[in-house]
Specification:
The complex is a heterodimer of chains A (83) and B (232). Chain A is mainly α and 83 residues long. Chain A has one domain. Chain A is 90% helix and 0% strand. Chain A starts with a helix and ends with a helix. In chain B, helix 2 packs across helix 3 and helix 3 crosses helix 4. With 232 residues, chain B is mostly helical. Chain B has one domain.
Chain lengths: 83, 232
């Protein structure tokens, strides 16, 4: 019971974060929200007894992708400034 | 207006289909024939304690070669498309916080060690080349961000990537010559089940995959990092 309650709460947070990632005005907040989705997904994978998938999701989804998005955002802002 | 209602209709239809699938689902009470074969014969045939690794590296090793090739192509395309202009490592405009520098000094060796542990023990514990490589790449991110310690050697990354990819294919071809087929792991002695040096060539292959994936992902990050310092 406790188990499914935790998973339901985390899924709800993921849904809210997904909504934020699409609709938030500030792009930095949107990128961080999409990283948080991966973080909670990896915790759910651990609950579902898949530690290897959880490590992949945590390191790729919430570290590498977020950093790449931030690099690209920074680059876009730079070229906007020079225009 | 019409476009929105069509969209809502489409989403409702999708939800209906998924709900039908969900309500008709009931878990299988026994393994199907392929899974049963793997579960029964993989420990004796490959000697790997981790069944997932046994399947990924030997039974479906060719798929893994394809995945590694896709990753290599992605890294090559990103490097080719993005690295224009002069290459300068980005100088941080303001010095990093002391917190980040100290934390990265402590965490970097541990992160690299964890990544290497994950892919060397891929045949024993959950893990493997791809995740080990991803953990190594996140260590490289921390290294770039904190800008402490020595510079990352680009030549070393390139040599690592080239030789590990080459070694992977060579091991596969050796499998044809010395054992049953492409990427057969019996070219080395199977050893004692459950020890580090067991499961034939699986630890070697997975270490090569881990190094290759780590080098490629790091390369992508480094190329993107270099573009930040360019003046337009």
């Amino acid at each position: 019971m406790m188990y499914s309650l935790i998973i339901i709460v985390m899924s709800l947070i993921m849904l809210v974060m997904a909504f934020m990632a699409i609709h938030h005005k500030n792009l930095q907040v949107a990128v961080i929200a999409s990283g948080i989705i991966s973080l909670f997904a990896s915790v759910i994978y651990i609950f579902l007894a898949a530690p290897d998938v959880a490590i992949t999701e945590a390191s790729i989804g919430s570290a590498l992708t977020v950093v790449i998005f931030f690099y690209v955002l920074n680059k876009i802002r730079q070229s906007d400034d020079t225009k | 207006m019409i476009r929105n209602s069509i969209l809502i209709l489409l989403i409702a239809g999708m939800a209906w289909i998924l709900f039908q699938e969900f309500s008709a689902y009931h878990g299988a009470d026994k393994l199907n024939s392929i899974s049963e074969y793997y579960a029964k014969n993989a420990p004796t045939e490959t000697g790997a304690a981790n069944l997932v690794t046994a399947i990924v590296v030997t039974y479906r090793g060719f798929d893994t070669l394809g995945e590694v090739t896709i990753l290599f192509l992605t890294a090559a395309i990103i490097g080719f498309m993005i690295s224009t202009g002069k290459k300068t490592d980005r100088k941080p405009e303001q010095s990093n916080s002391e917190l980040l520098e100290t934390a990265s000094n402590v965490l970097l060796p541990i992160l690299i060690l964890v990544g290497v542990y994950i892919f060397i023990n891929g045949h024993l514990t959950p893990g493997g080349g791809f995740l080990g490589g991803a953990v190594l790449a996140s260590a490289i991110i921390l290294w770039l961000m904190s800008a402490t310690g020595p510079k990352i050697s680009h030549a070393l990354l390139e040599v690592t990537e080239a030789f590990s990819g080459f070694g992977f294919v060579i091991l596969g071809v050796l499998g044809i010559v010395l054992a049953g087929g492409f990427l057969d792991n019996k070219i080395l002695h199977l050893g004692t089940f459950g020890t580090l040096l067991s499961a034939g060539a699986i630890p070697v292959i997975y270490s090569l995959i881990g190094l290759k994936v780590g080098a490629e992902l790091s390369k992508i990050i480094i190329v993107l990092n270099q573009t930040q310092g360019e003046e337009k």
